[in-house]
Design a protein that fits this description.
Layout (H helix, E strand, L loop, with lengths): L2 H9 L6 H12 L7 H13 L3 E6 L5 E5 L1 H12 L11 H9 L7 H26 L5 H41 L29 H6 L1
Antiparallel strand pairs: 1-2
Helix pairs in contact: 1-4, 2-3, 6-7
Length: 216
């Protein structure tokens, strides 16, 4: 997130001091990305050093008022007209976690995916509820908050689809590994002793009954 350019964009409307800038930023983004006031003043100091803003005195309560310079207006105009670069995507903790989980032995990757899916679905439900509550106001701040919510909803939906896709790939990879594994070798059995051939029996000569012998 470019805090530097966000503050310049706010100062382009009117001069403000640090707490005002933080309040304006959080109002327009629905406190989705809360700013620490120390971060705001640190950024203002750097912007002043670079000639993009300048101190414009103090108000009645002693707050230093900052105004944007001509160089600052050029900078913020360039920011609005330059696409956000995707050549070096920001670090995605979830993608890094899953990439390591599939390579570190002993990690239950399926459990990691299931837990993350449950958490992301809960967040999606919260975003959807906030979107219903936000309504459809005509004020620019309402539209700004609605656009931020849309971004969060779409990102959560995409993450759930990606998790489903990852789970399906893991299952397919497991099936392919099982199919490619060599079949187990047959167990060795003791050789059986050769059988002894049986000797053929000699046919017996039928005996003549005694009565027949007497008659002869």
């Amino acid at each position: 997130m470019s805090v530097k350019h966000a503050l310049l964009a706010l100062l382009e409307q009117e001069p403000m001091y640090g707490y005002q800038l933080r309040a304006e930023f959080e109002q327009r983004t629905g406190t989705t990305w809360p700013l620490n006031v120390g971060q705001v003043y640190t950024t203002l100091t750097r912007l002043e050093r670079d000639g993009l803003v300048g101190a414009d005195g103090e108000d009645a309560e002693g707050h230093v008022i900052y105004r944007i310079t001509a160089a600052g207006r050029t900078e913020v105009a360039s920011w609005f007209t330059t696409p956000v670069a995707r050549t070096q995507p920001p670090r995605d903790e979830l993608a890094i976690k899953l990439a390591l989980a599939v390579t570190v032995p002993g990690v239950d990757v399926g459990s990691v995916i299931q837990q993350q899916r449950s958490a992301t679905m809960a967040a999606l439900q919260d975003y959807t509820r906030l979107k219903r509550q936000a309504g459809s106001g005509d004020a620019p701040s309402d539209l700004a908050w609605s656009l931020v919510l849309d971004s969060l909803v779409f990102a959560a939906e995409a993450e759930i689809r990606w998790l489903d896709h990852g789970e399906a790939r893991l299952r397919r990879a497991a099936v392919e590994r099982a199919a490619a594994a060599p079949a187990p070798a047959p167990s060795a059995t003791a050789p059986t002793a050769p059988t002894t051939p049986t000797t053929p029996t000699t046919p017996t000569t039928p005996t003549t009954p005694a009565s027949e012998r007497s008659a002869r």
